Q: What sequence folds into this?
């Protein structure tokens, strides 16, 4: 964001939805519209009509090199971001303290005072810090930062999180299908889900044969997040099972015979 332009031509995009911008620019291809819809639901938890054109265009532009070439220079690890956390912990040495539950962050003239509990001993814990990076969801921050407990800033209540369903389907072996071979991230065209990830994809021996887990994602992206969350929680296991299998069987008709467990 620091390297992005703040010219009025571009900041004006934040007053348009991505759907409005697509229409304004004459982008009407059904496949393009589907791709943009997918990206907005996946990255921002909302449909193009509810997502800032600035944010959506920034998402696509960030994947390009300066010359317009597509940038494929990304890294993933079998254990995900755990690999990064372990590397940071190792290089930080003894400076890392873990198993601490922080329950309050109080700004002071010198920085912040953190209050918490040692999870191993149950002993109260406090420290004065010059700087604090509070990397938590906003609804959690509202309960941690002491001034915000007393008077919640407007920007906290204005922000909503979209509810998602994540289903892990254990299979006896990876399913076959038409078209592109199985990848780590597999997208189902014209589906309301976000497709699925093959959890064992980076274990080379598991790509062709053997048990695996398909991790499936479904975001609720309507304007009423609270209502969506209530509807999500009201469905039974059997109803969710039917929805997950119906979505995946479009791409893999034989999947039911391979399915062993659904969480």
A:
């Amino acid at each position: 964001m620091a390297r992005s332009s703040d010219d009025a031509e571009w900041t004006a995009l934040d007053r348009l939805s991505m759907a409005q911008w697509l229409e304004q620019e004459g982008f009407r291809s059904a496949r393009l519209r589907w791709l943009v819809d997918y990206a907005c639901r996946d990255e921002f938890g909302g449909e193009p009509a509810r997502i800032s054109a600035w944010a959506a265009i920034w998402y696509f532009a960030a994947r390009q090199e300066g010359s317009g070439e597509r940038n494929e220079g990304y890294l993933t690890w079998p254990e995900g971001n755990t690999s990064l956390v372990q590397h940071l912990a190792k290089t930080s040495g003894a400076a890392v303290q873990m198993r601490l539950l922080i329950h309050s962050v109080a700004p002071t003239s010198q920085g912040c005072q953190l209050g918490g509990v040692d999870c191993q001993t149950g002993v109260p814990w406090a420290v004065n810090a010059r700087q604090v990076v509070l990397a938590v969801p906003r609804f959690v921050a509202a309960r941690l930062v002491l001034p915000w407990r007393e008077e919640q800033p407007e920007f906290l209540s204005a922000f909503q999180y979209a509810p998602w369903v994540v289903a892990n389907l254990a299979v006896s072996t990876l399913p076959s299908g038409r078209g592109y071979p199985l990848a780590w991230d597999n997208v189902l065209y014209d589906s309301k889900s976000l497709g699925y990830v093959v959890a064992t994809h980076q274990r080379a021996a598991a790509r062709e044969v053997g048990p695996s887990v398909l991790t499936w994602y479904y975001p609720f992206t309507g304007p009423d997040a609270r209502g969506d969350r209530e509807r999500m929680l009201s469905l039974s296991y059997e109803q969710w099972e039917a929805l997950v299998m119906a979505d995946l069987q479009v791409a893999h008709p034989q999947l039911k015979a391979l399915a062993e467990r659904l969480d």
The first strand starts at residue 100 and ends at 108. The mean pLDDT is 90. DSSP finds eleven helices and eight strands in the chain. Strands lie at 100-108, 111-118, 124-129, 164-171, 185-186, 196-198, 212-219, 259-262.
